[in-house]
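Lab notes, practical 5.
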Amino acid sequence: MSIDATDRRLIEATQSGLPLVPAPYAEIAAGLGLDESEVMTRLQAMQDSGVIRRIAVAPNHYALGMTANGMTVWDVKDAAALELGAQIGALDFVSHCYLRPRALPEWPYNLFAMVHGKTREEVAAKRAEIRALLGDALRSGDILYSTRILKKTGLRLGKG
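Output from the prediction step:
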C-alpha cells in the first residue's frame, strides 16, 4: 500500500503520540479537517497493510520507577524458538520479545525479551521465570542491563 498526502499528514500528526484527551481521534481529525471516522478508517487501513505496525500505549518505565531494565538474550533450539517466543511475549512483565538471527561465533542468541523492574533483583527473578519456561530448548542465556536511554521514539517522517 502506498500512502497519499492525507495519510502522510495523519502519520505526521500522530507520530509523537495521540493527544491525551477523551476523544483523541476527534481532536486529530479536527486538526486535519477530516471526520473522526475517516481518521480511524485510514489508521486501520495503514495498520492492516503494514504501513503502521501498531498503535499502542508506550509508558515511560523510568518515570514509573522501573529503572532496572534488562534485555534477556537466549540461545534456544530453532525448532522451538517461535512457539517459545510467543509464550514469553505473552508474559505480563515482558514489554517486547523477538527473534533475530544469530551472529556466530560471537553472538549465539536468537531470542530476545525485554524485562523491566525496580531493582536488578526483581529483573533477575523475572529472568529466572523465563529460563524455566524455556526448559530443554535452552542452550544458554544472558542479560544486558540498560545504562542509558538512547532513543524512545519510533520512525519520524520528514516534511515533504
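Observations recorded by the TA: Residues 14 and 28 are 8 Å apart (CA to CA). The first helix runs from residue 5 to 14.
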